[in-house]
Amino acid sequence: MRAENLSWDDLRIFMHVARCENLSKASKQLKVDQSTVSRRLNHLEYSLGFSLFERGNTGLQLNDQGARLLAQVELMGAGFSGLLDELYTGTNEIAGRVRVGTMEGLASLYLTRQIPRLQALHPNVTLELVTSTHQLQVTRREADVFLGFFEPKGHGFHSERLASFELNLYASDDYIAQKGLPDAQNLAEHDFVGYVEELIEISAVRWLDDLIQKPNIVFYSNSMLSQMFAAAAGVGLVMLPSFSEAERFGLRKIELTTPAITRELWLSVHQDLRYIARIKTMTAYLTRLFKNDEHFQNA
Asked: Is the entire prediction scored with pTM above 0.90?
């Protein structure tokens, strides 16, 4: 290995390529030419004396040596971020971007409404809100912080259960005028909107299954927002989290005598990031937010 030729710029580019598994995506993320990314990656492998990826038609996959190097480079990156935060802390300023990954419904129907409060409390901390139908990998830095409806599995991150929330059944006034008011005894006679079964990547969103067996679903979507607006248009009944405050969109909560349906809310953060000032500030803010909101029952 030619250690004297190792460059942090090469290692940083390697880290982005490893996360993206694709030269084109990494170049867009880094805002440099793809040829530059390829050249720097080749230079790094030449300096090390071994390859880091298995190259195939579908992209780049880390080999064993690449995976070991990535773990060390991520530690270096976290250390550099920590150094920057220490410098900011020295001037009594906590600043920087924090990427929070979560599901569409929690992001669009709840967290976006909390941004003004975050800005007022921490004006120099910028939220990057990323939505996904699957668990974003904090171990691969797809997100700094992940909020999910399930206990995450894996290593390299710290996770904790923040709270739980209820799911409620909703209907529009137009639907009720046409089909009548639903109750626990006549649900089989009603129409529903729900998720596309083969596209469900998180089993926690199968909340309709907890209410009724074999519902008559007349509209499917992998989007909670699409389901909500279809129900608001009178298409059918919809199950939504209480934090959505679906009444804002013309839906009425249906009171049922069935047991409450609940889900948990979990927070995950990479072990190497959790004590960096801006990350710690964001996780503390989120923890307080859910603790003090009536839509969530505290863990």
From this structure: no
